[in-house]
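Lab meeting minutes (informal)
Scribe: AK
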Amino acid sequence: MGKFYSLVFVLCCGVFLGRAQSIHFDRLDINDGLSQNTVTSIIQDDKGFMWFGTKDGLCRYDGKSFKTFMHDPRLTTGLGNSLIKCLVQDHDHRIWVGTDSGLYIYDPETENFSGVPLYAADGKPITKPISILDCDREGRVWIVVENSDVFCYDPQTRGVECRYKPRKPLRSLASDKNGVIWFAGYGGGLYCTEDLFQNVKPFLDADGQEIYPKDIISFICLSDYNEMYLGLEEHGVAKVDLVAGTVTRLRLSDNPDAPLFVRHILPYSPDELWIGTESGIVVYNIRTRRYQHLKSSPYDPYSLSDNAVYSLCKDREGGLWIGSFFGGINYLPQRNSDFEKYYHTDDPHSLRGRRVREICPGSDGRLWIGTEDAGLYTFDPANGSFRFFSPSREFTNVHGLLMDGDDLWVSTFAKGIWVIDTRTGRIRKYDNDNKPGRLFSNYVFALYKTNGGRIYVGTMHGLQYYNRETDRFLHVPEINGGKMVHDIREDSDGNLWVGTSSNGVYRYDARNDAWTQFLHDGDDPNSLPYDNVTSVFEDSNRRIWLTTEGSGFCRFDPAGNKFVRYSTFNGMPSDVVFQIIEDDQGFFWITTDRGLALFDPRAGSVRQVYTVTDRLLSNQFNYKSGYKSPDGTIYFGCIEGLISFNPETLLGRKTDYVPPIYITDFSLLDEKVLVGGRNSPLRRSIICSDSIRLKHNQNSLTLQIAALSYREPQTNRLLYKLEGFDDKWRQYTPGSATITYSKIPYGKYNFRVRLPAGSGNAGAEPEKRLFIEVSPPFYLSVTAYVVYGLLALGALVLIRIYHTRRNVRRQQQHIQAFEREKERELYNAKISFFTNIAHEIRTPLTLIKGPLENILGKQTMDRSIAEDLIVMDRNTNRLLDLTNQLLDFQKIEKERLSLNLARQNVTDIVEETFYRFSSSAKQQHKTFELEPGEGEIYAQVDREAFIKILSNLMNNALKYSETMIRVGLSVVDDAFRVTVTNDGEVVPPEMREPIFAPFFRHARKDESTGTGIGLALSRSLAELHGGTLAMDADTELNVFVLTIPLCRQAAEDSVETASAEDSESIPDERGDLGWEAYSVLIVEDNPEMCAFIRRQVSESYSVLTAGNGVEALELLEKNYVNVIISDIMMPKMDGIEFCRQVKTDLRYSHIPLILLSAKTNLHSKISGMDAGADAYVEKPFSSDYLLSVIANLIKSRQTLSEAFSKNPLVLANTMATSSVDTDFIVRLQEIIQANLSDPEFKINDIAEMVHMSRASFYRKIKGVLDMTPNDYLRLERLKTAARLLRDKRYHINEVCYMVGFSSTSYFAKCFQKQFGVLPKKYASE
């Protein structure tokens, strides 16, 4: 009965009839960068690059990218035609390219093409297609022109000549190692020549017959064993024994009579031929005489891309390149693949499902394969065949497989559990029918059988186990209630591990019957890395490993219940990890969603990552889809099928091939660089270059690199470093096509590219070096530095010359400056002398002028005495004018004189001055004429300064004229002009400018007295007016011309107001005010001047005198003073310092102070006023003016005091005349206001609070406020009362007591006396 059920099972599943082909091709076409899909010729050059001739361009391939050469009419060094027919490389490393219209040679050094002219017998150039190219052992290149002659290039002569004119066009040609050239035409058999076509003979077989004379020999393949294989267009392949002369046709198909069009034959190995035909590839084993026909299949992405095969080429690694007509390039890395692939094809015994989920060994050596999209299969590793288990059409989405004896447990997605008896084919099912003892859920993801025989079931809603006796499923309460189970595993200690999707991992301790849950803790780096655990694995060392979906994998450390994490930071390709399988060498093979990782648990590092580049089916594997067979073969399921490999074979495979490393492309500023181009740093191809020199503005470059290994691509593993710029080796980024360096500083660099150590090559690790020198900009180059040195040397010479000349010039300037300084010192000495004399003269003049005015002011006087006194007064005024003139000149020199410009009648001033000098002219019997012009002239002038100018000019004219003086006045444009002409000795032209210099006197015949400053002063005053004063060019008379603008708006804006000392119109405020009650302190070091002032002041005031500031301060401490009059220039303490001390001393700061001085300059006046002076009076002064100033200062104080005392709203600080007094009054008011309501508050209390004696306090209050301290205290009480009454918030009696009065009647009396109104009436107003 058992055999019957087994037979039924076999019949249901089907029978395998043959093994599927295990040859898997890679494909390259136009989508990968190939210029065109028709590949006519393939070669590998001596550097390792693959070259592909297509119908639209020549392509060079480096294992990563294509570089295409095509016809470009703009290039003179490019291909002449893009349709490539054939290729060959000569012994000079050049590539010969036969095109559809001519022959070209590619020079890899320059990357240029050059045409090879071919000429017919008549001398005409041949432009026909080149059908065949072949290079013999001597380096000669044989060229077959389609439907034409055979040419030969001789490397000795470097010339091309026609060697053979065939009767029929040649179809094939090849040269053997002995130098024999074999060729065939379109029919007629096989021919050969042993003397370079001197003699041509047909090849006859042992029977003396031509070989296939009626067929076309399309390809000649020469073997190393005196054998030849001929490709025929109809009869396939014929083997020719060159020694025996026998010809044997190879059996390449089941039907020997079927035609087979052969285009190419390649001896892949001594025992194997690859034959390219119009109907695919035939792989023929010479030794066994078996064949395999490889064809294109639309269902197999790893089959040939096209059946029409045109070219074959075997590279140095043993890889096979196949060129097809429509399918581009097919590449077979090696005869036996590293990874066996099992996927869906049109073979009925292939795997139909793509999403392989479960792999489980059967009891008969076969494997059960569960897929998520096509049900259940059995796989026979012996022949690689799959059989579909037809009942699985009911449960196509398999998620778990478990063998329990002869029963196969199958868990599914949404279909519960199916248990298959593999002997009988009987099936029973378990699902969720909401009855006790049933499954929690029909979604079952894990099945596991413990060593004790218990079967655990992981569902979407928790963990259950199967009770064989009751045929029921019991639940585990600790893993229940929606906890989805991914995997279940029992370790060597009998502990059960359960991985869940979001609840971490559980461990059941069978000895203690206890469950422990491990969860991720973000604050604990030793916790579970992630709560989504995809699988549990125990290695050969009994260590537990967990994989997670998002945080890599980890190893459990039982010592502290810790987890050691491994992720992308440790070299993993992804943090989504599905499963771990350990091989026989102790290495872990770990599946992820980005490739297969080889992990060394001993070193804790990832050794290598395999991806689709290494011929995997897909980079994404599937959950728990892995199995290791007893023979060490590992199986993994992915989303595109199933793969298998032997780790020992994969890791033990070594190759002697060392991939060369090249820099394949070079760009500057993202622009391709042509060899020998304009501004190009390349003189050779970058592939052949060992060094390049760049300009300073070419320091941003881009490089492409490649390791020429096609079987095991190494480019993505390359390391590179720019020594001098990079501080460490960098990993070549797989997703990046280039390496870019931007703005490299000038200097020398070494670009290095190498493979990492341990790349799996038996030879030495290759390395490519490129020396790069970035030149500095010209201004930093050696030439520039030489120029800089010469310039610096020249500059030093120039500097030396300059310093020498400068020292000479400085010495001359120093001498000239010394001379000018001496002249200036002499000039200043004169000015200083006359100024000091003027100051000294003004004081005695004051003593003379003052008494004279007093005497002349008396009405009773003898007439003769009066006349004498008038003469004295006139001469005193004359002396005063002279001193003032000298002082004015000093002011002008020091730029301290300012004009008082005002609109004046110039005509009147000129006439008035003219008439003042008329009497003197008459006395001298000289003609004195005035020409005033028409009308009156008005202008902006300073009257006094203008009169001084006119007086000087007229005085000089009277002094130096002979008989005539003429004064003229006129208007010229916007100015008026005054001319003063005299007929005296004419001033020479060279002297007409120097005479205006100070103290210059022109020597004349009859010398007259003078100071020499009149004209200098006049010119200075004229220039202050914005005018000019000069002599006319007249050579007959002396003509002085004064020109002044009529209107000076800018001058008006800057005119200073008249100073106080010029304003002598102060009214005499003296009257019957009791002036004798006031005291005046006179501070003067000159006894006569002091006595004079005392006499003038003592009539009206009480007078105190002091000789200097120190004595004056002593008097102030003992006496009450109302006004201080002080000189400035005094010994011990001058007037400025005395004034400053008075005004900063609280006791005296209120006293008005008048400064007297002979110093009339503005600076002295400002210094005095800054020190706090109240008035400034110049010497000599008028007695009346001085008395008026004193009276005005006293009167202003009385006015302020009266306003303060009579007006209840005027505050005391209005009485302050200085900041010191203001602070004093504010302090005083604060003290009084604080104690206002205290009727016992006395003056002595206030004096103590302001730290003053009673006497000093009395004098201070009296001086500042002009009242006694008691009066001031009472006044402050009354003013406060007035303010309170005005607010109308208090009654009169309340206000009375608030301000310190104890009697309301006395308060009313005082209020009315002070303000002239009763409090009641004041409050009502």
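Next up, CB showed the second protein from the same session:
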Amino acid sequence: MKKPAINALLSGLIGPLRLSTAEDKKASLQLNKLLTRTHLEGDPLALRPNPFSIEKSDLFQAESLSDTQKKSIQTIEKARKKKEPETQFTVFRRDLPLRDPLLPQSVASWSAGSKVDQTVGPLQGIDGRQFWFDFLPIGTFTALYKQGIASPILLFQPAKKVEGIRTRAVLSSRQIQYNLAKGGIWINARLFSPNAPEGSYTGLTIQSGTLKLSHVAKNTNKKLTLPANATIEVALTLAQQESSASDKTATTYGKAAASMSLNFPSTFSFRISGSTASIMRIGKAGWQLMGQKISLTWSKNEPLSYHPQLQRILIPFQSSVSEIVVQQPESDFNFLRNKAPLELSGWLLPLTQLNLNQPTLPEGTGQLYLRTGPGLVNSWKGLAGNGFQLSQTHFLASPGQLLLADFNVANPHASQVLELWREAEQVVPSHVQLTFPQAGPLLYLSNANGSEILMRFCDADFQVDRPVKVDGSPPSVQSKHSLLILSATSADRLAYLYDDNLIADTGEITNQDPYRPEQMALAMSNALFKVTQPNGCLLFGKVTEDFSKVYEGSLFLSFGLLAYIPTLPDPYAANLGLIRNQFRPDSAGLPGAAAASMQGWLLGKTSWSAATEGDEVEVTFHFSPLAQLFGGISLESTSDSATPAPDTSSPGNFSGTVINATNSFAMQADLENPANRLSAMSFSNSLEQVEPQAMAKFASAATPAASPVRKPLPDYGNRWEKETNRYRRDVFALLDVSTNADLFGISFDLFDRRQFRVDTERDPITGEISYSFFSLQVQGLDVVSNGENVRAFTVPQISWEPVINLSPPAPPPDGPIPGDPAGGFNYYPNDGGPTRIANNSKEKVVLAPLPLTDFLLEKRLKDTAFQAFSFFTLPFGMKAAALLTENYRFNNVDRKGGNLRETKINFDNAMQSGLQLRMDAGTPLREGDSDMFMGTTVQLNNVLDFLGNATGNSTLGGSVTDIFNREFFYDSNYPFELFKQRGVPVTRMDLSGYGASMFSNWLNTKAAVAETSQAKFDVMLGRCSHEIIQVKSILYPWAIKVVRTITLFRVSSGYVYRFDSGWRAESDGKFDFRYYVYETNPAFPGGPPENPEPQLIAVEKMAEFAIHPGLVKGLYNVSNIVETAEVAPFEENVLFAESVDQLGMEVNTPQNFDVKLQPVYFDADVEIEGATAGMQTKTTAEGEKELVPSSRILGFVQLGPKGFPLNNAALRQLVQRQGTIGGAIDCEVELVGSAQKMRFSHFDFNNSFAQNGSDPVFCLAGRGNVLLPKDGSWSMVRHERANGEVSPVPPNFGIPVIRPGKIIKDGESVKIDTPVNAVLTRIAEPLELFRQPINGTVNYGFLQSTDTQKALLLTPSFQNGLKKLLSKTPPLFVDAFRIVNTKGIFPNIGAGDDFSLQTLGEAILMKKNGSIPFDLNALQDLGQDVFELMDVQDTLNNVKEQGLQLLHNPEELFDLPTEFELIDVGEGNFRIYIEYAKKDKNGTIEEPGSLDFDINSVTESWKSKMNNIGLVIDLAGIKRLMTIRGNWDSEKGKEATYPKPDLEFAPELDPLVDLLEILQSLQEGNYGEAVQNGLQLAMSNKAGSWEYKFEASKEIPVIRFPVPDAVYNDPNTPFKLEAGLKIGAYFNAALKVTTNANELLPSAGGVLGFYGRLSVMCVSVSAATIYAIGQAEVDIAADTQLGPSLRMKFGFGAQIVVGLPVAGNVSVLFVVGAEIFIAEGIVEVSAFLLFEGHAEILGGIVSITIRIEAKGTYAKKALPGGDSRTDMQCQVTFGLDISIAFIININFTESWQEQRRIA
């Protein structure tokens, strides 16, 4: 359980005191001083007895404390805080003058048997009771434990060390003795009696003593622990206590105790073994009682026991007498007589529930005890009926105090009458009749200090005349088993009468079981209470000497509160709200069954005191929460299962007098929970509040399918309910409908000022918020409550009438936008709810409208700390909450607050205006604001369609609502504040029960970014005639200041129309991101009252963006701004290093903000630098300008956060999400006067990087097509630095143009920080504005292409006014051979930035004599030198045409590299490369190569000539197998040629060439010419294509011997020889049609082949000859796909040739042969059989050939993964060839094939 605060403990302990005399005040000072040294932490119930039910009532709440007591509590707290108090005492507050465990309300379980050091009292309480405060000293003890027993068995005080005396002695090796000091010892009671209460101890005061331990105890922090088998011998010398002479007083009361003489045992010894103590020795005792002497000795043989009724340990003694004779009555109040036999005597040891952490000191040495049988008679003063015959009397005597008790006595004939009050005119006094028919306990206590107390249960019958019911009769009050306590002291005589179950008693009296209580009604001026008959009564007061009249006292009657019905004095309408639940039907279905659900208690207090004539009587009422006061009685309807009343008649059972305690000064109420709030308000927990229904979630507005999903507006109504419900909810509300209060009323609910979150904080020490349960009280006949619980209440102030919307949403694809209302009629569900004015006052106010409004006005006028809180409506879906107080406070500085006053006008004839409350706004916090209220305003999105369905739309539209509510209601970027400094944009409003009147025009002249700039309301008596809400923001990324105005206006017909201006531009888009932050005004406070200085002043700032606009100088004449649904809103959470708070003050702590931007399209005129066509002259704010029109430019309006623009990160994310942001244009531009022109198609805003490559900057780019020269084939290409690839710019891609130059502030405008002449204008990506090249860099370039070469001008740039093309990259050149090595438009050039070599990637750097032959420009490109490459012309031959001329000396030739590798498969298998020099066969350079290149569009010419170019082929290990050498020439207008190529063979081929030359010479031909003419070159490299092929081959014709052909074909020729040579290379050769992806890859290879055939005549017969034939073919090849390969084919056979003179020659050939093909992973072996017949007729005019071939092939091929397959193939081919010269040519071939996989 959480410990209550010290303040709350002190409030409950001393708060109820009433200090009326000087003696009381003096005693209070002593009390306060002692409390500063008292331990107060812990359970508050341990400090004071269980409270009566009245102590839970509002009479005892904290605010009822007197100022004196509040000051005392503060003094005690301060004293305790200055220095940690030395807690010397514990304290207990009792209600009775004497102490004894059997006497209720006199001791606590922990204080019984404990020594009291000081007592302060009696002090009177506010309810009339008297209190005594006992201070018990805290002792220091050593605890002795035994293993197996959880609690200590002894707590003792060892003697201090004194010289010569040992406090601890070693008796033997195992025994230890402790000497005990004078003081006290506590003994675990269960050692003496196992049935003693757990944790109880008995204490004795000793003079000295010893402890003998059988074992050495383990000592830990003054805790000694013995083993379980140890024994302890305790020997005590008890301190004798006798009544001092001062106790034997001659006072009237207490004589019996004062006259006693007591002798207690002087010694007491016992042994502890195990868990039991056995007594060894007890000294003698004696007693003189009422003149009779009695000697007592210990009865050794009788056991000890725990006496539950006496609540003590009983040690039996033997008595010297056998009967008790009352020889002399010794009291003037209580009368004991006769004699009785003695049944039992003994020594009683008191029990205490000891606090082991702070043990008290024991008190005395117990009591001497006697018990008698029947015979004694007891009576007291004022009792009639012969007294009580005692059946078993217990006498308990201790020094100075005597207790007499009998637990079962009765006398139905005894009675006593106590007169209560009697007013002067009252005939019969109010009185109570007491009777004693029931058997029960009788207690009498006499103390030598002059006090006596008697306690007895009785029946009571009250005859009183108040309080009265609505019919004027008093309630009946009868009780049974009521507790009566009479007290007589030297100062006063007191009477207590208490009963808490009168309803159960009535049931018993009327013999009804179960009994349903009587119901009645009590009326007040503004309430009606439906109650039960009284269930509890409490009477206490001062009594006359004869105990016949209570001359000063209080009578409390507790009524069960069934229903509280608030009323008003005048006619009214009521919404009983939650208290309607009081009238739920009962289980039987009966209406109005409030009796079945009791809500709390209504206490009627009647106080009286003696006056000159009669008594002065006062009746008051108080509320108390529901508690266990029924004693188990059910108030439900009659049923068989009704719970019976508890039995309180058993002897000694006083539980009926004990009430569960609650600290009424520190009760906690969770006001967030409706049930708990009702509990706190004295209503039943069963009551539940129904929370307002949340609005339905609205579906997104209808959009095209392609539109992004858009979120609807938040449910602002539900959010408003959530944040304000606790302040607006009503337990009930009453509205006066008469003209007396002018439709004002009241509403009620529990409130605490801390809930308003206005300058509040929790308790700095405890962190607790305490709240009293008693919100309702009765003063006189008025129900009152704290002002904070009562609100002024009236009708909604402004009618939310239907609105005709003249501005419907845009059609798709741009609209509709969520939140924008539909065109036509818009409706509202209601008028927004009632108007309430709450307040924070703790002072009481009557629950009625006129007293309440007077209270509000007076408190606002006079109380500087007073705060009123007004909840009201504004036009068309707006709600507001305003703070009304004398001063608004910010940073602990005050300024004028919102005022509340009455507007009242007096007219003639005593006519007055109705009740009207005027609210005037306070001084604004910020510069630029009109007067406004602290608080909150919300625009609800509660528009209904014509069918009454919720649409989720708002009167202000989606974007305006978002901005307005972020500023005045809820912004997710800040903690919610209901009463924020800038909350209600209203300057004045007059409230009345007939509707509000207001003419408010609130302005914010400094509104800049997502802020409201105007809120105007013209209202007359609840009808709005004119409303204007205007917001301002900024449009990204162009920095266009925009404004949007929503206007509602009433026309003469009474209809209200809505017009939405849409977003309108207030500025041009010149990237001027100015805004305001606010800082403390050093001149505040100051200024005239009518125009005071603001506390915060605006300071202009510029956003952090680094924007480089390049050629886009600004956007002007912005119009047609339309929100669009085509683009999703930008909503991200972004970290801001710098921001502003709710008030616009700068914050430099990093914080995340929710960013929301609304996409829009708009039209504008764009100023493009250098525009030469497509522009128009238009007027702007800066004068006339040449502007390019653009439409549907994309932009984003900032809706949040408010007050400051985006940062770099947010803008970067926005651009990154969109890619680029811009619009379309159509204009021709000359780039910075360079004569280079472009056709811009659009412009956009892009992300970029600062020079460090990471910091964000932003760059605008103009994009379009570059105008290129017509001569040659010019195009634009892009280079990707990551992979070095060069590719064409896509057809629809706009090439960007950028230029550095940042926007900076220039007075009231902006400018570029860098002159145009100082920087380059570049064709480059915006990302490369400052960034050094990285892998992601993309460059652009000019490419000139011809059939034989390409020239690339990369990274072009331009200087202002200089007609030259500049570049940081020298020109790159590629020839025809390099072209064929790429599949792209240009060979790979790598990163493109290393100029140290002759080449750049696969391209040739155009150098002369090893250096770059171009002039350097004065400017640099990202720190690199820039070359002037081309002269740029825009006019050729007087015609506007783009022209470029290479800037170099054409007489000097460009360098060429030595070699260029086309293909190399490795290991000498195959290689093709280019030599740019003439070399001999050994590779020695004989003459270097050179390039004659030029571009001149001015003269419309270009050329490219390369000398000494050689193509070299290595194959099959043969170096320089074939070399083709020559010059390569191309120029404009001519076909590219390779004139006069030379063909060179490797030395390894010389024998073959020589053989062929011999054969050729025999044929009388020119072989050299044949070789040259046989060279075939094929290239495909057109300028418009980038698919290149190259093939160079030489196939030497077959040489036949003998010659001519007639001789060779003659059948009689004895010897025939054929030979041929084939050599060549190819690159990217034509691909075959295949489905194999590998075969689709580009291929390159080389081949060397030789063919030979020999025919030798064997037999010749006339015209027929038989030849033996041998034939061989050998091909050696290498290919990038197959690798190196070898093919051999050879065969042997015979041929018969017959020559016929007329017909011609006929031959038949038969050959058998084999073919072998070996390549990587492939082996093929074939055998074949060939039969061929051939006939030539008429000298070859007719030729017929028949061919039959049979072939078998064995093939083994390696597969991926290491596997292989083997196939066998059989094939038969038949062929027929018939040819008739120039007429017929028939070819026919048919094959049959079978293939099987065999392995």
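CB comment: The chain is about 10% helix and 45% strand.
No objections, moving on.
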